[in-house]
Amino acid sequence: MLGLTLPIFGVVYLYYNSGNLSWELPALSTTVEITMLGLGVFLLLAQFLLYRKRFKRVFQTEDLHQKMTIYSQAALQRIHILTVSCLVDAAGLLLFKNPLFVVFFAVTLVFFSLAKPSPDRIIRTMKLSKSDGDLIRQASRPE
Protein backbone atom coordinates (compact mmCIF):
# COMPACT_ATOMS: atom_id res chain seq x y z
CA MET A 1 0.00 0.00 0.00
CA LEU A 2 2.84 2.36 0.77
CA GLY A 3 4.32 1.54 -2.64
CA LEU A 4 1.16 3.00 -4.17
CA THR A 5 0.88 6.17 -2.12
CA LEU A 6 4.54 7.17 -1.81
CA PRO A 7 5.04 7.90 -5.55
CA ILE A 8 1.77 9.85 -5.66
CA PHE A 9 2.82 12.03 -2.75
CA GLY A 10 6.33 12.33 -4.20
CA VAL A 11 5.03 13.77 -7.48
CA VAL A 12 2.77 16.19 -5.63
CA TYR A 13 5.62 17.22 -3.33
CA LEU A 14 7.91 17.87 -6.30
CA TYR A 15 5.16 19.97 -7.88
CA TYR A 16 4.77 21.85 -4.59
CA ASN A 17 8.51 22.59 -4.36
CA SER A 18 9.23 23.34 -8.02
CA GLY A 19 7.32 26.61 -8.23
CA ASN A 20 7.56 26.71 -12.02
CA LEU A 21 4.81 24.22 -12.84
CA SER A 22 1.23 25.36 -13.14
CA TRP A 23 -1.60 22.88 -13.33
CA GLU A 24 -4.31 25.56 -13.23
CA LEU A 25 -6.06 23.89 -10.29
CA PRO A 26 -9.32 25.40 -9.04
CA ALA A 27 -9.22 27.58 -5.94
CA LEU A 28 -11.13 25.96 -3.12
CA SER A 29 -12.44 27.60 0.02
CA THR A 30 -10.65 27.65 3.34
CA THR A 31 -13.47 25.52 4.73
CA VAL A 32 -12.50 22.67 2.42
CA GLU A 33 -8.85 23.04 3.43
CA ILE A 34 -9.71 22.95 7.14
CA THR A 35 -11.97 19.96 6.53
CA MET A 36 -9.14 18.08 4.79
CA LEU A 37 -6.72 18.95 7.60
CA GLY A 38 -9.30 17.72 10.11
CA LEU A 39 -9.82 14.56 8.10
CA GLY A 40 -6.07 13.93 8.15
CA VAL A 41 -5.97 14.25 11.93
CA PHE A 42 -9.13 12.17 12.31
CA LEU A 43 -7.72 9.34 10.18
CA LEU A 44 -4.49 9.23 12.16
CA LEU A 45 -6.35 9.12 15.46
CA ALA A 46 -8.93 6.65 14.18
CA GLN A 47 -6.38 4.15 12.92
CA PHE A 48 -4.56 4.25 16.24
CA LEU A 49 -7.67 3.90 18.39
CA LEU A 50 -9.34 1.25 16.21
CA TYR A 51 -6.15 -0.80 16.14
CA ARG A 52 -5.80 -0.65 19.93
CA LYS A 53 -9.45 -1.59 20.42
CA ARG A 54 -9.25 -4.60 18.08
CA PHE A 55 -5.85 -5.66 19.36
CA LYS A 56 -7.11 -5.96 22.95
CA ARG A 57 -9.23 -8.90 21.80
CA VAL A 58 -6.00 -10.88 21.22
CA PHE A 59 -5.64 -11.34 24.96
CA GLN A 60 -9.14 -12.79 25.31
CA THR A 61 -8.22 -16.05 23.57
CA GLU A 62 -5.55 -18.69 24.03
CA ASP A 63 -5.69 -20.14 20.51
CA LEU A 64 -2.72 -18.96 18.42
CA HIS A 65 -4.64 -19.21 15.15
CA GLN A 66 -7.43 -17.03 16.55
CA LYS A 67 -4.89 -14.53 17.91
CA MET A 68 -3.21 -14.26 14.51
CA THR A 69 -6.57 -13.81 12.78
CA ILE A 70 -7.47 -10.94 15.11
CA TYR A 71 -4.01 -9.40 14.74
CA SER A 72 -4.02 -9.64 10.94
CA GLN A 73 -7.49 -8.08 10.67
CA ALA A 74 -6.49 -5.21 12.95
CA ALA A 75 -3.21 -4.63 11.09
CA LEU A 76 -4.92 -4.73 7.69
CA GLN A 77 -7.58 -2.26 8.78
CA ARG A 78 -4.85 0.02 10.11
CA ILE A 79 -2.92 -0.11 6.83
CA HIS A 80 -6.04 0.68 4.81
CA ILE A 81 -6.80 3.73 6.94
CA LEU A 82 -3.18 4.90 6.68
CA THR A 83 -3.35 4.53 2.89
CA VAL A 84 -6.42 6.75 2.76
CA SER A 85 -4.62 9.21 5.03
CA CYS A 86 -1.69 9.35 2.60
CA LEU A 87 -4.03 10.05 -0.30
CA VAL A 88 -5.81 12.81 1.65
CA ASP A 89 -2.43 14.36 2.49
CA ALA A 90 -1.34 14.25 -1.16
CA ALA A 91 -4.61 15.78 -2.34
CA GLY A 92 -4.42 18.47 0.34
CA LEU A 93 -0.88 19.41 -0.59
CA LEU A 94 -1.77 19.50 -4.27
CA LEU A 95 -4.88 21.63 -3.83
CA PHE A 96 -3.81 23.98 -1.04
CA LYS A 97 0.03 23.89 -0.89
CA ASN A 98 -0.22 23.87 2.89
CA PRO A 99 2.94 22.46 4.52
CA LEU A 100 0.86 20.89 7.31
CA PHE A 101 -0.06 18.16 4.83
CA VAL A 102 3.65 17.33 4.54
CA VAL A 103 3.84 17.04 8.33
CA PHE A 104 0.77 14.79 8.41
CA PHE A 105 2.28 12.64 5.68
CA ALA A 106 5.50 12.29 7.70
CA VAL A 107 3.49 11.23 10.78
CA THR A 108 1.59 8.76 8.60
CA LEU A 109 4.90 7.27 7.44
CA VAL A 110 5.89 6.79 11.07
CA PHE A 111 2.64 4.93 11.71
CA PHE A 112 3.22 2.85 8.57
CA SER A 113 6.59 1.89 9.98
CA LEU A 114 5.03 0.95 13.31
CA ALA A 115 2.21 -0.96 11.61
CA LYS A 116 4.52 -3.24 9.68
CA PRO A 117 4.06 -6.70 11.16
CA SER A 118 7.33 -8.51 11.79
CA PRO A 119 7.76 -11.77 13.70
CA ASP A 120 9.54 -10.07 16.60
CA ARG A 121 6.92 -7.32 16.84
CA ILE A 122 4.09 -9.89 16.74
CA ILE A 123 5.71 -11.99 19.47
CA ARG A 124 6.44 -8.98 21.67
CA THR A 125 3.08 -7.21 21.34
CA MET A 126 1.00 -10.37 21.73
CA LYS A 127 3.20 -11.60 24.59
CA LEU A 128 3.44 -15.08 23.09
CA SER A 129 5.02 -18.06 24.80
CA LYS A 130 8.39 -19.31 23.58
CA SER A 131 6.84 -22.21 21.67
CA ASP A 132 4.27 -19.96 19.96
CA GLY A 133 7.00 -17.43 19.21
CA ASP A 134 9.14 -20.11 17.59
CA LEU A 135 6.16 -21.17 15.50
CA ILE A 136 5.64 -17.58 14.30
CA ARG A 137 9.33 -17.20 13.42
CA GLN A 138 9.32 -20.51 11.60
CA ALA A 139 6.20 -19.58 9.62
CA SER A 140 7.72 -16.26 8.55
CA ARG A 141 10.83 -17.83 7.00
CA PRO A 142 10.68 -18.89 3.38
CA GLU A 143 11.47 -22.52 2.73
How is the topology of this model organized?
Elements: H1 2-18, H2 30-55, H3 64-96, H4 100-115, H5 119-126, H6 130-140
Helix pairs in contact: 1-3, 2-3, 2-4, 3-4, 5-6
- Structural shape: elongated
The portion of residues assigned to helices is: over 70%
Rg is: 19 Å
Structural class: mainly alpha
Can you describe this structure?
It is elongated and about 60 Å long. The chain has one domain. Helix 2 packs antiparallel against helix 3, helix 2 packs parallel to helix 4 and helix 5 (119-126) packs antiparallel against helix 6. It is mainly alpha-helical and 143 residues long. The model has no long low-confidence stretch (mean pLDDT 90). It is built from six helices and no strands.
Notable features of this structure?
mainly alpha; 78% helix; 143 residues; single chain; 6 helices
Briefly say what this structure is.
The chain has 143 residues and is mostly helical. The protein is 78% helix and 0% strand.
